[in-house]
Amino acid sequence: MEYLKLLLLFGVGTMAGFINVMAGGGSSLTLPALIFVGLDGAMANGTNRIALTLQGIFAVLSFHKRGIHQYQRSLQLSLLTLPGAIIGALLAVNISDAWFQRILSIVLIGIVISMFFPSKKQAQQTTAEGRRTWMIYPVMFGIGLYGGFIQVGVGFMFMAALYHILKLDLVYVNMHKVFIILVYMIPTLCVFLVTGNLNWPLGLCLAAGNSLGGWWGAHFAVKGGERVIRYVLAVAILIMAAKLLGLF
C-alpha cells in the first residue's frame, strides 16, 4: 500500500510539474492528493512544501543561469512577506482538519473560476506611479499570510501584484515570484517541521515527480496545448473539491 501511495504521488507530482510549466496551478492537485493518500490537512500542507522548496531552488538557479536576477530587490520584496507567511503557517497547523479541507475546497473552486477569466499580457516595462507603490507593502503581507496558510494559487497572486502595482516586465515578475516564494517557504517549512507536520518520503517523492513533469513540460510544444491543460486541470480540481466537501 505504501508503494502505491508513492507511485500515485509521483504521478500527481509529474502532472503538477507539467501543468506548472504549461498553465500554472499545479499545487491545486498536489495538496488534495496528499490528503487523499491519508494525510491530515496540516501534514499535507507541510509535506507539499518540501516539493515546493526544492522546485523553488531549481527555478531560482535556472533564472540565474539565464542572467535574469535582481537579488537585492527580490530580497526586499521577500522580507515583506515573511511576517504574514509565518502567521499563516501557525494558523495552518492549529486549524482543525475539517475546516482546512472546507477552506481548501472553496479555494480550489475559486481557482477554477479564475482560470477562465481573460488575462491581458503586455511585454513592455513601465514605471510604477509613486502614489501607488505603497500598496505593495500591505499586499505582500497579505499574500504572504495566504501563502503561509494554504499556498495553493499564490503564484498567480504574486504575479498580479508585481505586475499591476510595480509595473514590472513579465519576465522579471516571474523571476521575483519564484525567489519570494523560496525565501518565505523556508521559515514556513520550519513551522511545519517543528510541529511534526512533514512526511519526508512522500514529500521527496512528490518533488521527484515535479522535476520530471517540469522537464517534460518545458520540452512539450503543441499548438493549443495550454488550453487543453487548463480544461483538464479544471475538471480534476472540481472533482477534488467535490470530494473534499463530501459530495461523494
UniProtKB/TrEMBL annotation:
It holds the Pfam family TauE. One of its GO terms (cellular component) is plasma membrane. It is found in: Cell membrane. Its main location: membrane. The keyword Transmembrane applies. InterPro entries: TM_pro_TauE-like, TSUP. Keywords: Cell membrane, Membrane, Transmembrane, Transmembrane helix, Transport. The chain crosses the membrane at residues 42-63, 75-93, 99-118, 139-166, 178-195, 228-247. It comes from the Bacteria. It is a multi-pass membrane protein. Belongs to the 4-toluene sulfonate uptake permease (TSUP) (TC 2.A.102) family. This is Probable membrane transporter protein. It comes from candidate division KSB3 bacterium.
